[in-house]
């Protein structure tokens, strides 16, 4: 489903965040409050950077770190387990002003993957580092390293074991419920700073019981993450294999750049394009004018945004049948 967020009458700075699109949550009321509180904490951390005149990149990193550390999402602490019972994490950040980007995949011991992704962007001539090489780079920079058990929450390990034992109900089983793979998981942030610069960042633990070495859309420039000051910044969440094939995030920008579509229409069309061949998920996107959209075609999505002109909302989660059709 797609929701329309009122257009800004003048350029405003701000950001949007997401905690994944997927199947309905079976969380308790207390857990839902915890999700809401963590989204607010993330949103406030990023907005505080922007409000003080900080750069969009700093805001994105600040917001995503909160979500990686939360233990609630499929990113950082709380990541899904792969087929061997380990967490493997991916992350990416892209700067729309310079078109620079940094990406990491297959991390098992770096506490905050999004911070390492930024280091790849800022401190190397490369765009993407993987696995052992990426972690060697992290150690050389003095990054905080943790045992893989740090990322493995009781909830995720139980889900993994139930899946392997064939005991998950169809609504929660990624083998039987298309669109539930990311669950409420992959996290991301897009930001526009007061200087008009756009940045996108995404972090994920992938899908439960994935093959070791599997890489989804999140760390791939133009698939799950993209930013361009001419158009917009996008962070996606959903079935990564489909978002890769659809070059989803870049498609949003291209539809604006080449066809002149507004952000709302471009994001909606890009999501529909992925859906035509089976892909489900959602995204958050912000354009250079401060317009925001956060569409999804799954049952629900964690999402929030806050802009300097007073617009904002926290939906934890937004449920498809509760959303009014876009105008």
Task: Note down, in words, how this protein is organized.
The chain contains 8 helices and 12 strands. The protein is α+β, with helices and mostly antiparallel strands and 327 residues long. It has a single domain (14-322), classed as (Glycosyl)asparaginase (Glutamine Phosphoribosylpyrophosphate, subunit 1, domain 1), CATH 3.60.20. Helix 3 links the parallel strand 3 and strand 4 (128-130).
Annotation keywords:
12 strands; 327 residues; 4-stranded antiparallel sheet; 31% helix; alpha+beta
List the helices and strands and how they pair.
Elements: E1 14-22, H1 29-51, H2 56-69, E2 89-95, E3 101-107, H3 113-123, E4 128-130, H4 131-140, H5 154-164, E5 187-192, E6 198-204, E7 225-227, E8 232-238, H6 240-245, H7 248-259, H8 263-275, E9 281-287, E10 292-293, E11 300-307, E12 312-319
Parallel strand pairs: 3-4
Antiparallel strand pairs: 1-5, 1-11, 2-3, 2-6, 5-6, 7-8, 8-9, 9-10, 11-12
Strand-residue fraction?
A: 15-25%
Largest sheet: 8 strands, mixed
Q: What is the CATH first-level class name?
A: Alpha Beta
Task: Please state how the strands of the largest beta sheet are arranged side by side.
Answer: 4-3-2-6-5-1-11-12
How many helices? The count is 8
Unreliable spans? 1-9, 170-182, 322-327
Assign the CATH topology: Glutamine Phosphoribosylpyrophosphate, subunit 1, domain 1
CATH superfamily: (Glycosyl)asparaginase
Oligomer: single chain
Global structural class: alpha+beta
SSE string, helix = H, strand = E?
EHHEEHEHHEEEEHHHEEEE
Overall average residue pLDDT = 89
By CATH, the architecture is named 4-Layer Sandwich
Helical percent range?
A: 25-40%
- The tally of strands reads 12
Shape: globular
Q: What is Rg?
A: 18 Å
End-to-end C-alpha gap:
12 Å
């Amino acid at each position: 489903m797609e929701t329309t967020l009122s257009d800004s009458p003048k350029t405003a700075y701000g950001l949007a965040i997401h905690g994944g699109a997927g199947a309905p949550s079976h969380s308790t009321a207390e857990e839902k409050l915890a999700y809401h509180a963590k989204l607010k904490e993330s949103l406030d951390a990023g907005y505080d950077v922007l409000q003080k005149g900080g750069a969009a990149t700093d805001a994105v990193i600040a917001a995503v770190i909160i979500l990686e550390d939360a233990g609630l999402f499929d990113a950082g602490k709380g990541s899904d387990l792969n087929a061997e019972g380990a967490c493997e994490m991916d992350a990416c950040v892209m700067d729309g002003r310079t078109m620079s980007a940094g990406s990491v995949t297959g991390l098992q011991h770096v506490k905050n993957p999004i911070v390492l992704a930024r280091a790849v962007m800022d401190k190397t001539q490369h765009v993407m580092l993987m696995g052992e090489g990426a972690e060697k780079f992290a150690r050389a920079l003095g990054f905080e390293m943790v045992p893989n058990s740090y990322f493995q929450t009781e909830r995720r390990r139980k889900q993994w074991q139930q899946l392997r034992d064939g005991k998950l109900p169809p609504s929660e089983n990624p083998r039987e419920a298309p669109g539930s793979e990311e669950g409420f998981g992959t996290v991301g942030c897009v930001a526009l700073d007061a200087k008009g610069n756009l940045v996108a960042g995404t972090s994920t633990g992938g899908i439960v019981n994935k093959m070791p070495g599997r890489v989804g859309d999140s760390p791939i420039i133009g698939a799950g993450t993209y930013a361009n000051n001419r158009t917009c910044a996008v962070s996606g969440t959903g079935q990564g294999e489909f978002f890769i094939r659809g070059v989803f995030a870049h498609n949003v920008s291209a539809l604006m750049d080449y066809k002149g579509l507004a952000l709302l229409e471009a994001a909606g069309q890009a999501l529909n394009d992925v859906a035509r061949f089976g892909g489900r998920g959602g995204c958050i996107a912000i354009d250079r004018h401060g317009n925001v959209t956060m569409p999804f075609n799954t049952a629900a999505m964690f999402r929030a945004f806050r802009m300097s002109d007073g617009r904002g909302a926290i939906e934890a989660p937004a449920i498809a049948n509760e959303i009014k059709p876009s105008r």
